[in-house]
Specification:
Blueprint (H helix, E strand, L loop, with lengths): L1 H17 L3 E4 L2 H6 L10 E9 L2 E9 L3 E2 L4 E2 L2 E10 L2 E11 L7 E6 L18 E8 L4 E10 L2 E8 L8 E4 L8 H18 L7
Antiparallel strand pairs: 1-2, 2-3, 3-6, 4-5, 6-7, 8-9, 9-10, 10-11, 11-12
């Protein structure tokens, strides 16, 4: 009996260890083949397929492209939607919506920062913890807001930052539930915030 239990334990350990998170950016043709355009109200900016112990997911990042010109494509609204294929349809797991806010100076664009977003298994439990980063710019082409959203077990944990030259209008806030995240995930996101600070020349801190 003990040998059987030990064998099952080793078999489970081997399976868990061998479980890899795969992730790939989908081409325009693959997006059409999967009918992912049906998922959102807006044009798809990027679609990523990733898999973990829970199954295979499609993460769709969409922007409404309100103003399109040779010089700029400006968005007033964005959506991020995570779905699973479910018997020919889509089972939505979670969704993020945001839009321009009424600030001075005026916000004119909101967009996904895909270079900082990821679908990794950060804490090594066999499940992906997507991190979605997006920001907004003002009419003077300055970064105004930055949001870093971590999805852990289908719950969202948000960092909200407002950039401003003056101390009183600058902020950097983590959700109240932030400390319930595993330490590995908190450390990863803290390092990501520091990377954004350095590479984008922004403060990401309270006044």
């Amino acid at each position: 009996m003990k040998k059987i239990v030990l064998f099952l334990f080793l078999l489970n350990s081997i399976f868990t260890f061998s479980q890899k998170i795969t992730s790939q950016k989908l081409t325009k043709e693959e997006i059409i083949q999967r009918d992912l355009n049906e998922v959102s109200d807006f044009p798809i900016y990027r679609a990523i397929e990733y898999s973990d112990k829970g199954g295979v997911y499609d993460l769709v990042l969409t922007e409404n492209r309100k103003v399109i010109s040779k010089k700029d494509t400006l968005n007033t609204k964005i959506q991020a939607i995570c779905v699973m294929n479910d018997h020919g349809g889509f089972l939505e797991k979670w969704r993020i919506n945001d839009l321009l806010e009424d600030y001075t100076p005026k916000e004119t664009n909101i967009w996904f920062w895909t270079k900082y977003s990821s679908t990794k298994d950060i804490d090594g439990d066999g499940y992906a913890e997507p991190v979605i980063v997006y920001g907004s710019r003002t009419e003077y082409d300055e970064i105004r807001r930055v949001k870093i959203i971590t999805v852990y077990k289908n719950k969202k944990y948000v960092i909200r930052a407002i950039e401003c030259d003056l101390d009183y209008c600058r902020s950097f806030q983590k959700d109240k539930n932030w400390n319930t995240l595993p330490q590995k995930i908190k450390t990863y996101v803290d390092k990501l915030a520091e990377q954004i600070r350095k590479e984008q020349g922004i403060l990401l801190k309270d006044g």
